[in-house]
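User: Show me a protein chain along with its predicted structure.
Assistant: Here is one chain, sequence first, then structure tokens.
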Amino acid sequence: MVHYSQRLPLLKRLFEIGIKIITINTFNNFRSIFLTLQKTSLQQPFNRFIKRSFDIFFSLLVLLFLFSWIVLIIASIIKITSPGPVFFSQKRTGKDGKEFWCIKFRSMRPNEEADTKQAVKDDPRVTLIGNFLRRTNLDELPQFINVLKGDMSVVGPRPHMLKHTEYYSE
């Protein structure tokens, strides 16, 4: 049987790494501890530095060791199977309402509705390779370029289409 004195170092350590104990309940002789993650403010310069450093490091790893060779394969297949550009870029709304061009592999036939009409399930505009890219999320691999540029972050909310800006700002 573990005594409370043996548990205290663990509870102290959990608090130190940002996990806060909400309640300790007893129900039918079972004790349960409810934990929550304590929010770390990105208002603090050090926390922003850590997050940005992680974004740069991780996106460089992905771009150098994954994207650098897989782009050749995916780009070739896109070019062979459908006319149009390899990449698709769309204006998105990012942090503080700042607009930027979000880069993705093109998964649909080129069309004029790309910036205004959202894709739906079984959308006829999606190409055969595009269907595979979307299912595997490989179409989003070029977004690590956006992460490296500072337009996006590895951890955080996804940027949305410009037409959704008003909806999400409420």
